[in-house]
Design goal:
This protein is mainly alpha-helical and about 325 residues long. Helices cover about 65% and strands about 0% of the residues.
């Protein structure tokens, strides 16, 4: 367990710290880890050759949902695939202890369908109250999706050896066992951590990640399941971060597929958008001194005016010297 804490968690002693103490330690470390010089250095990313490529990249949640089509020349092969799909669907339903899952498997590829049917889902309550969902489960889902979106965008859909670290580090659930408890908490914590640890620590890029996350949510639970599956695959290939699947990703895969309905409630998306509506207020709420840093990094108008006045006086003085000569 000490190895787990050292390799996967930023929390040093998970067994003896209660949730309140975990949060206190996390926020204390976040404040200490903020690098103001690095933040100022990343204010302008235009010189990074990857940045325009990443900004133009279109992830799968921005593309039309694929549909399976067949033709007469491959009818036998399609029948075989359909038989396999039916078997997987049956296994999936038995594994989930349900008559039918809320998320249809028709738009997943064969590998995804196989994975969905073989995940050792934890046994969770089938019916969770809407109050509990709103206050706890949706913020926790964001805490998994936003780190995935950050990594997926910056790697342009091709995960690297650092992807498991990036996803785990950006998520307070995975790195501190401290999931956000409200949507506001999720927005603040995730935005702070995007400015503390990853490759690009740029506020505008963090908003870009949030906008993509909102698009992902608006695409429906099918897209959310695909994102969680890709997160699961990334963590599963890691020597230490795979534990996050058992603790958080697998339970969320279970919950999302059994959620009542195929779409994310609009009130959830609207609440997140409301938190992001005023960038200046959000910067202030992060308690990292971003506005003050940016102000000191930008020459003031008064200073510019003084420089201009001094320059004019020097020019006039030079002109008077020429006349006297």
């Amino acid at each position: 367990r000490a190895g787990l804490a050292q390799e996967m968690l930023q929390l040093s002693d998970p067994e003896t710290t209660d949730p309140i103490e975990r949060r206190r330690q996390r926020m204390e470390k976040e404040t200490a880890d903020f690098d103001s010089d690095r933040y100022l250095q990343d204010l302008d990313l235009d010189e990074d050759y990857l940045y325009p490529l990443v900004m133009e990249y279109q992830p799968f949640w921005s593309l039309p949902i694929p549909t399976t089509t067949g033709n007469s020349s491959s009818s036998d092969h399609n029948k075989d695939d359909q038989t396999i799909d039916n078997q997987l669907s049956s296994q999936f339903q038995q594994k989930m202890h349900l008559g039918s899952p809320s998320v249809s498997n028709e738009n997943f590829n064969a590998e995804e369908r196989l994975q969905l049917s073989t995940i050792p889902y934890p046994l969770l309550p089938k019916n969770l109250s809407s109050t509990n969902e709103t206050s706890t489960l949706w913020p926790g889902l964001l805490d998994l999706l936003v780190p995935f979106v950050y990594d997926h965008l910056t790697t342009m859909g091709d995960p690297t050896v650092e992807s498991a670290w990036t996803i785990t580090t950006l998520s307070s659930s995975l790195s501190w066992l401290d999931p956000p408890t409200t949507l506001s908490d999720a927005v603040l914590t995730l935005t702070r951590r995007m400015l503390l640890y990853p490759y690009w620590r740029n506020f505008d890029f963090s908003l870009h990640v949030w906008n993509h996350t909102i698009t992902l949510l608006q695409s429906g639970l099918y897209t959310v399941v695909k994102a969680l599956l890709q997160t699961r695959t990334i963590l599963e290939k890691s020597e230490s971060y795979y534990v996050g699947n058992k603790l958080f990703v697998d339970p969320y895969l279970y919950w999302v597929q059994n959620h009542n309905g195929r779409d994310i409630p609009s009130k959830i998306i609207e609440a997140v958008q409301q938190q992001l509506r005023s960038p200046q207020e959000l910067k202030k709420a992060l308690h990292l001194g971003l506005l003050e840093l940016e102000e000191t990094n930008t020459p003031s108008n008064e200073s510019s005016d003084d420089d201009s006045e001094t320059s004019n006086q020097e020019s006039e003085s030079d002109g008077n010297d020429d006349d006297s000569s």
